[in-house]
């Protein structure tokens, strides 16, 4: 395989969404990728986006998404379009032989996602969703603890949250509250992270059932602004999550095992860009006169040279490079993880729509 620094993967971006600013910076920070093209429905909008986000002078500026996909020099595309447009443009990107980094939520339902994954597989292309925290070195360290039978034991319960308080303008005008653009609302946006965190803690073993816990909150257009649900496994392990556009910032995971527990308060976006913290406790008991813990919880700080979104791009570009310059095949684990996340989202949505009834989860 060619060296990363000599043959960087050339990225095209479809659209000028706010999140694309963060990912375009990540592409620049990643050592094995380069910003090659940006396309928007307006040439002027694409030109302005490129200029304000430090695109290299040689980057191609296009006034359509099709033009990016038709450029033979684009190796991979990042698609941050509204979820309702993912099926069309992700499948078209695959048909044009472009590797796919797809913003979450990846689809409106698992049927749509299956068509996207089938298109990537049929064309031998790498797929990955843009769940950035999965690529931080902290995530691997935390999972090592969860996998330790002596320190953590077996998983019993997980609770995950992701909430932030949307401004009045956000709640009125953002694409995430528009039924024709992102009809899943907070469940697709912040709920995606919660469900992914739960599946991650459970080593991606799907739960048996999903059940919404209370009547969700909607906007006047019928889009979810806040909801909560529980997930139950065959062996009675349980998980709960809360996601919302109406509450103060929260990004917590609490995982409890038979011998230990894990707590992290900023799993989606670390408080500091180049370091991240988590806490564990193992085999704890009450201290003297129940005035403290014995032993006390441990705290770990994991540093990173580049931010998690750049690590995501680096890993994706490395996989793409292995296909383009070597004899590697596409890594299918990312499609499997995406699909499991979407399956649980679909089940929670079905529970909400069915009056908070419990829904069987079928992969």
From TrEMBL:
GO MF, one annotated term: nucleotide binding
Pfam families: GFO_IDH_MocA, GFO_IDH_MocA_C3
Gene3D superfamilies: Dihydrodipicolinate Reductase, domain 2, NAD(P)-binding Rossmann-like Domain
Sections of the chain in a coiled coil: none
Domain Gfo/Idh/MocA-like oxidoreductase N-terminal per the UniProt entry, residue ranges: 9-128
Family note: Belongs to the Gfo/Idh/MocA family.
The name this protein goes by in its record: Uncharacterized protein
Organism: Trifolium subterraneum
Taxonomic lineage from the root: Eukaryota, Viridiplantae, Streptophyta, Embryophyta, Tracheophyta
